[in-house]
Design goal:
Layout: H1 2-9, E1 14-17, E2 20-24, H2 35-41, H3 53-67, E3 71-77, H4 83-98, H5 107-121, E4 122-123, E5 131-132, E6 135-142, E7 148-156, H6 174-182, H7 185-191, H8 210-229, H9 234-253, H10 270-280, H11 284-291, H12 324-351, E8 359-365, H13 383-413, H14 429-435, H15 455-464, H16 470-481, E9 494-496, E10 502-507, E11 512-517, H17 529-539, H18 544-555, E12 559-560, E13 564-565, H19 572-586, H20 589-593, H21 597-613, E14 616-623, H22 653-663, H23 665-674, E15 678-681, H24 682-689, H25 694-700, H26 709-720, E16 727-729, E17 733-736, H27 740-795, H28 799-927, H29 929-1092, H30 1098-1155, H31 1157-1238, H32 1246-1373, H33 1378-1505, H34 1510-1529, H35 1535-1538, H36 1543-1552, H37 1554-1583
Parallel strand pairs: 2-14, 3-8, 3-14
Antiparallel strand pairs: 1-2, 4-5, 6-7, 6-8, 9-10, 10-11, 12-13, 15-17, 16-17
């Protein structure tokens, strides 16, 4: 209470109460709602923002975006507490901050919406000049991007009876007064408002005050502008004005009273009724018949929320006859209900959108608690006020359920023990007294039962009961819920009133007692057909603008059972909300009772609560500061409690306390503080906050599958170093104290921002590298284009090139024309296909929309039918069970009846037998007179005995009755005593409970304080450890800084010594210059003397001239030396200035580095992390490349070994075989030569023989080249082995160096992180210390001022003491009374004690000043130490950068070496392939040569025996020509191909002859020409 009063006095009307918001209505318009304030709350978390209604909207919007779950904001409070105003602020914030696609939802549009709603649904009451008389829910649907996609408004519980009848002192809806005051002349003429009625049955009369008329006229203009903003056309507006005018004229027409001589029901003034009929577009007869001449169809249930009210005082409802006035009021209320529903439909039409929506946010605004006694009104509350109070009670019950019941159940499920026994989570009993249903609610019976049921059900039963009345209804209600005789009155929420029709109901847990007047309430449950005829009358109107609106609306289900308006909408979420509400009205009891007027109240509130319960609810408690009308003209009325202090704004403390107790805010705050309000599922918590513990992620890996979520969360929490008391582990989720989760969220945001920044840096680096690669490619392309242009310049003057450039475009033109025609045809075909596809798509879209709408309609109808069937089946089952029970009862009764009938028959038989016996005895007495006397005596004696027995039994019965009555009185006395004792014990128990609650709350507060102290001690210990480590590091840095300063001082001394020596040299040079000047003057004087001696001869003159030239030369030399000395001096001065400037610059840079240490350290850390990451990537690449090179090395070595073995074996064998063949060939050739010489006369071909020799020499040369190539290959292979060994050694050294650098990198990274944390902590401490020092200095100044004031007071006190001492002496001398002296002495002692206290205070302040100075000095020392540590870190970072640079250079050299090795490997592979090809060709040649030599040898041996030498010569010629042909036909690059030709082909070619040889030569020349032409063409293509 103190907190609220202090904040309210400071104009802070918003206060946090746990998760809830408390708003006190300021009764004025504060300046805290502006667009600037909105942007202050945009994107903020609830923990980071001040209490404000915008904070609630931002929190709900943030939860909606993060969880994708529907949100609700519910406003609770009394009437006039500012709920509707806060609702407008919420909407304005959400629309402004979230925005919408295309800005279709603006703040101006929502202002227009509320302007229309306030005009048609608000009026002035005793508590509020602009009170709402309907409940509404604003639904904002958001899309995937978080923007408002569509919106809608649903309304319910409209007080439409206020049009015709209302409490005294209150007005009708505002729209009537706006229209009468603001309509222009044209509209007045159309509405027949030129002459208004003097009186009205409905009490709607124009306002009398001019300022009220002017205000109403302005509001009407504003209303018309709002309708234009929402797209309501002029015809639609005119239709609204016509219906309102018709309602006014119906009130002016009035109705006749019943019971006249004719007995007809009709209008009292027909001329006004004629105006109403004209405005409605019907005839007077139609209007009259719709109102008065309807056919009574019994007691039916209407489709509207209100029926006609009967306040005439007649309680009996035996007949269905209604008065004419009731019919007229029913018609007016029906017309206004239809009009209000139409207005809501037009508003929703302007707000709807076809965009896809994801989730929604609901804002619930209902009329507040109504209590006429609070506004000093001596009347009972009405049924409408009961309905609004019931709605508030249900919303308060939802708050209790969400705050207490669900929390305690969750704690119980998770095995969390909390001592919260003092918190009551029971619902309000007043709700059960209003809407409790019976178990037989589905049974259609007229019998009254003793089962308890609520007021709404009793009203329905009494309305249909013959002879039912309000008295009977209240008696039954008190019998169910009233306090019994002797029962504690506080346990009941229902009390009787002073008058018969009055009763008291305790709302808000008994803190708000409202007195209701139940007179005429049964008329709310009765049906009046005139209200239903209003809709038909509007649909059948002759005016097109009226009938068009209502006929179009009648086709769609925009009203649910005549109760909830605004259910139209095409979006998925709107359809889902409408289906939910329809389900509420079509399931269970609702399917049977949805036509009942009273039960509709409960069903509407059930639908509202069900819609809100499906979402995450945020509650806003609006409190009323005092009991007076908001904006009223009278004096403020304070009816509860005491007033606030004069320094604060006016607050009614008693009223505020009652509202706090009724809303259970203190209990909610206690469970928020003592419990664990924040909780998350294990997996969700681990997934969300895993980023705060990266070492766990590195430990397990990214793809680690968690098997035990609880254990993983425990490890995460241990790594976060949270206090044990700040969280609790449940079975499936982790619970946190208030504020703990927000701290974790803040840490997560910081970490996420850092990670995103690093990711952005990586992305930007990648984009920059890609751009650089693109530039390189562009540079290469430009160079290629330049090269081609240069080539083009060289060939552009060739005639063939000119011909080519002339002919080529002509060909391309023809080709391009054909391509264009083909492309045009393809485009036309594609256009036709596209049009066809578009048509099909549009048709499919229309079909899908139609089918979807049909599906939704069918699904809603199916749901309705299913629900109706379920309700019917339930009804059938209940009726069947009831029928079976009644049949069983009937059978039992029938059996009892049969037994009783048998008993009666037996008794009758006995009576008849007794009569017969007696008759026989009498007959016997007549026969025998002697014996008759004896029988008579016996008979008389028996009669006397019977009488005596009766008297005795009667006496005994009376005695027993008296004894029982005495016992009863004693028992009653004992019961009364026991009841008194029980009440006293209950009071004692209540007191003990309160005491226990107080003690438990104090214990909980003590526990919380202890936990806070423990957490604070833990934080202090952590800070102390960090501070010790920082102190040691800072001391080391101080030592380094001292060494650096000494080094700088030594350098400075050396520079000063050099400067001193330079100054001395400069002074020496100055002295030399002076001496030279003196010598120059002397020489000039001598020159003048010589000039004056004219008598000298020419020789002396020449000698003098020579001396003069020498002297001039010396002077010039001296001048040059002087210039050099001056230049040296200037250079020394510049060096001196440069050194001084360098020293100054060093000092400035040192100070600048100290100032910018945070930025530099951060940049260095980021650059080091980037470089380390790059090194890691490079290391990984090098590692992979190393593996690849090693693999290739092994493969190459294996290939080389195999090739070497092959070459060695093959070469050796080939060499041996070639040598043998060579020897044999030489012998054969020698023989052949001899034979050729012998047959020389036969003209053999010498040229062919020479060719054979050449061929043999070529084969020998080829063999020698192969041997040389083999040797060179062996040498290269050995070189490659050496290079590979060097590379492997280099690789191993680099791997060791890389591992060493990796370890150093990890160490440096850990040290950098520790240094960064230490730096952040030290900076925080430094800033805090600076702030503390500033605060301490301010405190010192204040304390000094206080000290001066204390000294002044001391002096004054001393002066007073002296004066008092003088007075004391004077009084003692003048013998004054001793009492006065003692009083003065007491004052003196008091002043002396005060003086002593001031002295101690001064000493304490001086000690505090000294301590603060010491703290400041310590902080300065810490700052110096920190600066030295930063310098050391900079040097270390530079050293690391140099090392990284060296590593990069080494890596580059290694990459070059590897590239060179790969290139050499590739060349060797190519050489090996060429050698293999050459080896194959040589082997083929050798085989051919062996074959030819063998043939030749065999031929020679054969032919040597014979004498025919011609065949031998021919065979040799053929062999030589054949070999020559093969040699000529084989080009140098293709020779190996012809060596592999088969012998059969060669023999065929031998058979062809010389013509073939010539043809081949000509073909070879032609092919070479073709090849040259082709190469020239390729050259042309390259240059182009």
């Amino acid at each position: 209470m103190h907190c609220l009063r202090q904040r309210y006095g400071g104009n802070l009307i918003h206060t946090y109460a746990g998760t809830n918001m408390v708003v006190i209505n300021p009764l004025s318009t504060p300046s805290m709602y502006s667009e600037k304030v909105m942007h202050m709350f945009k994107g903020c978390r609830r923990e980071d923002s001040a209490p404000h209604i915008y904070s609630v909207a931002q929190s709900a919007y943030r939860n909606l975006l993060t969880t994708r779950q529907d949100q609700s904001i519910v406003l609770l409070g009394k009437s006039g507490s500012g709920k509707t105003t806060n609702c407008q602020h919420l909407l304005q914030y959400l629309v402004s901050i979230a925005g919408s696609t295309g800005k279709i939802f603006s703040a101006e549009k929502w202002q227009a919406v509320y302007t229309i709603l306030e005009a048609f649904g608000n009026s002035s009451t005793a508590m509020n000049t602009n009170a709402s008389h309907f409940s509404h829910v604003v639904s904002l649907d958001f899309d995937q991007a978080g923007q408002v996609a569509s919106a809608s408004i649903q309304t319910m519980l409209l007080e439409k009876l206020r049009v015709s009848r209302r409490p005294e002192g209150e007005s009708a809806f505002n729209i009537f007064y706006y229209m009468m005051a603001g309509a222009d002349s044209t509209l007045r003429t159309e509405l027949h408002f030129n002459h208004l009625a003097e009186n009205s049955t409905f009490g709607i009369v124009p306002q009398s005050k001019p300022e009220d008329k002017q205000r109403a006229s302005q509001q009407f203009t504003k209303l018309q502008a709002a309708m234009k903003v929402l797209g309501i056309s002029g015809d639609e507006q005119k239709a609204l004005w016509l219906i309102l005018g018709a309602i006014y004229h119906l009130g002016a027409a009035g109705a006749t009273k019943d019971g006249d001589e004719v007995g007809r029901r009709q209008f009292a003034r027909h001329e006004w009724a004629q105006k109403a009929a004209y405005l409605l577009g019907c005839t007077l007869e139609e209007l009259s018949s719709s109102i008065f001449k309807h056919q009574a169809k019994g007691l039916q249930h209407s489709t509207s929320f209100r029926g006609a009210q009967d306040e005439s005082g007649q309680g009996d409802s035996s007949g269905s006859k209604v008065t004419a006035l009731e019919c007229l009021e029913a018609m007016a209320s029906g017309l206004y209900s239809e009009l209000f529903t139409l207005v809501i439909s037009l508003i929703n039409r302007a707000l709807k959108s076809s965009q896809h929506s994801l989730c929604s946010l609901l804002i619930v605004d209902t009329p507040g608690f109504q209590n006429p006694r609070l506004a000093q009104q001596q009347r009972g509350a009405t049924f409408e006020e009961l309905c609004h109070n019931y709605t508030q009670e249900r919303l308060q019950t939802l708050f209790n359920e969400r705050t207490f019941v669900q929390e305690l159940e969750r704690y119980k499920e998770e095995n969390i023990e909390l001592a919260l026994d003092d918190i009551e989570c029971s619902t309000s009993r007043s709700v059960a007294a209003i809407d409790q249903a019976s178990t037989q609610a589905l049974v259609r019976t007229l019998a009254r039962t003793d089962e308890a049921r609520g007021l709404l059900w009793l009203m329905e039963e009494e309305a249909v009961q013959p002879g039912g009345s309000e008295e009977t209804m209240l008696e039954r209600l008190f019998s169910y819920y009233g306090s019994a005789q002797g029962e504690n009155k506080g346990a009941s929420q229902l009390l009787r009133g002073e008058k018969p029709h009055l009763f008291l109901l305790g709302h808000s847990h008994g803190t708000n007692w409202v007195e209701y007047n139940a007179q005429g309430w049964l008329s709310h449950a009765k049906h009046n057909p005139a209200a239903q005829n209003a809709a038909t009358l509007l649909q059948d109107s002759q005016k097109k603008n009226i009938s068009g609106l209502f006929m179009g609306r009648a086709s769609g289900a925009t009203v649910l059972s005549g109760s909830i308006a605004g259910l139209e909408g095409s979006s998925q979420l709107a359809l889902r909300r409408a289906t939910s509400m329809r389900k509420t009205f079509t399931t269970g009891v609702a399917a049977v009772k949805k036509r009942s007027l009273c039960i509709q109240v409960k069903l509407q509130v059930d639908a509202l609560i069900d819609m809100v319960r499906r979402s995450k609810v945020h509650f806003v408690h609006c409190l009323l500061p005092k009991a007076e009308a908001v904006g009223g003209g009278g004096e403020p009325r304070v009816t509860h409690g005491e007033s606030a202090d004069s320094g604060l704004m006016t607050l009614d403390v008693g009223l505020l306390r009652a509202q706090l107790r009724g809303s259970k805010l203190l209990d909610a705050l206690r469970i928020y503080r003592q419990g664990y309000p924040d909780h998350m599922v294990f997996s969700e918590f681990r997934r969300r906050f895993d980023v705060l513990a990266p070492h766990l992620t590195k430990k397990h890996g990214r793809n680690y599958i968690v098997t035990d979520e609880k254990r993983a969360v425990e490890e995460l929490l241990e790594s976060l170093e949270l206090e044990k008391s700040s969280y609790h582990m449940g079975l499936s989720r982790v619970f946190f104290r208030a504020g703990t989760l927000s701290k974790l969220e803040e840490q997560r945001d910081v970490k996420t921002r850092r990670n995103i920044s690093l990711f952005q840096a990586a992305c930007r680096g990648y984009l920059a590298r890609q751009a650089f690669k693109k530039r390189k490619i562009q540079n290469l392309a430009i160079r290629c284009i330049q090269k081609n242009i240069k080539k083009n310049r060289g060939v552009k003057h060739w005639p063939w090139w000119k011909l080519f450039t002339t002919v080529r475009p002509l060909i391309e033109v023809q080709l391009t024309e054909e391509q264009i025609r083909g492309k045009d045809e393809e485009i036309q075909q594609l256009k036709q296909k596209l049009e066809k596809v578009e048509k099909e798509r549009n048709e499919l879209r229309l079909n899908s929309d139609r089918l979807e709408s049909r599906i939704t309609e069918m699904s809603s109808e199916l749901a309705d039918e299913r629900n109706t069937g379920e309700s019917a089946s339930q009804l059938l089952e209940t009726e069947t069970s009831e029928r079976l029970r009644l049949e069983r009862d009937m059978k039992d009764l029938q059996g009892k009846f049969d037994t009783m009938k048998k008993q009666m028959e037996s008794m009758e038989m006995e009576v008849m037998e007794a009569r017969l016996i007696r008759a026989s005895e009498l007959n016997g007495e007549m026969d025998d007179d002697d014996s008759g006397g004896e029988w008579r005596l016996k008979y008389e004696r028996a009669i006397r005995e019977i009488e005596f027995t009766k008297k005795r039994l009667q006496q005994e019965f009376d005695d027993k009755l008296e004894v029982e009555q005495q016992n009863k009185r004693q028992l009653e006395r004992r019961i009364s005593d026991l009841q008194a004792d029980n009440e006293e014990s209950q009071r004692n128990v209540q007191q003990l409970k309160k005491k226990a609650q107080r003690l438990t709350s104090e214990l909980q507060d003590t526990k919380l304080h202890l936990e806070g102290q423990q957490s604070r001690n833990h934080d202090l210990e952590k800070k102390q450890r960090k501070f010790d480590s920082e102190l040691s590091g800072a001391q080391e840095e101080v030592q380094r800084e001292k060494s650096l300063r000494e080094k700088l001082a030594r350098e400075k001394d050396m520079l000063t010594g050099e400067a001193f020596s330079l100054r001395q040299q400069l002074e020496d040079k100055d002295l030399e210059v002076c001496a030279l000047n003196l010598k120059l003057d002397q020489l000039e004087a001598e020159l003048q003397d010589l000039n004056s001696q004219e008598s000298k001869d020419e020789a002396s003159l020449a000698k003098v001239k020579k001396q003069l030239r020498d002297m001039e030369a010396k002077v010039k030399d001296q001048e040059e030396e002087l210039d050099e000395q001056a230049g040296n001096i200037q250079m020394l001065e510049q060096a001196k200035l440069r050194l001084e400037m360098e020293m100054e610059r060093l000092r400035q840079t040192h100070s600048k580095d100290i100032e910018n240490k945070d930025d530099e350290v951060e940049e260095i850390r980021q650059s080091c992390s980037k470089k380390l990451k790059q090194m890691e990537v490079q290391l990984e690449e090098e590692y992979s490349e190393k593996h690849k090179v090693l693999k290739e090395k092994r493969e190459l070595e294996s290939k080389l070994l195999s090739a070497q073995d092959k070459v060695r074996s093959g070469d050796m064998e080939t060499e041996k075989r070639l040598r043998k063949d060579l020897k044999r060939t030489k012998a054969l050739l020698a023989d052949a030569q001899i034979m050729l010489d012998h047959i020389k006369n036969n003209a053999p071909s010498k040229r062919e023989i020479a060719q054979l020799k050449n061929q043999l020499e070529e084969s020998e040369f080829t063999c020698a080249a192969a041997v040389k190539a083999r040797k060179s290959m062996e040498v290269e292979i050995e070189d490659l082995h050496v290079q590979m060994e060097d590379i492997s050694k280099t690789k191993q050294a680099l791997e060791e160096q890389l591992s060493r650098f990796q370890r150093e990198k990890n160490d440096l990274q850990s040290r950098m992180e520790e240094d960064q944390e230490d730096l952040n902590e030290l900076m925080k401490k430094h800033k805090a210390a600076v702030a503390q020092s500033a605060q301490n200095l301010a405190q010192i100044s204040d304390l000094q001022a206080q000290l001066e004031e204390a000294l002044k007071e001391k002096q004054e006190i001393q002066e007073k003491m002296q004066a008092l001492q003088s007075q004391l002496d004077f009084q003692e001398q003048s013998m004054v009374e001793k009492s006065l002296v003692s009083r003065q002495e007491a004052k003196i002692r008091e002043l002396e004690s005060k003086l002593e206290f001031e002295k101690t205070q001064v000493k304490r302040l001086e000690s505090l000043v000294a301590r603060l100075k010491e703290n400041v000095e310590k902080l300065m020392e810490e700052r110096d130490q920190r600066s030295s540590s930063e310098i050391r870190e900079k040097e270390q970072n530079k050293r690391l950068q140099r090392q990284i640079r060296d590593i990069k250079e080494e890596m580059g050299e290694l990459g070059k070496k590897e590239a060179e090795a790969s290139r050499k490997k590739h060349e060797l592979e190519m050489d090996i392939e060429s050698l293999e090809a050459a080896n194959q060709s040589l082997q083929a040649d050798l085989k051919l040569a062996f074959k030819r030599i063998g043939d030749l040898q065999a031929a020679i041996e054969d032919e040597m025996e014979s004498d025919d030498n011609e065949d031998l010569i021919n065979s040799l010629q053929d062999m030589v020509t054949k070999y020559q042909k093969r040699k000529n036909r084989t080009p140098p690059g293709r020779r190996h191909y012809y060596f592999t030709r088969s012998d059969e082909e060669e023999e065929e070619e031998e058979k062809e002859g010389g013509a073939t040889q010539d043809a081949y030569y000509s073909r070879y020349r032609y092919s070479s020409q073709v090849k040259d032409d082709d190469s020239e063409d390729r050259l042309y293509e390259t240059t182009s």
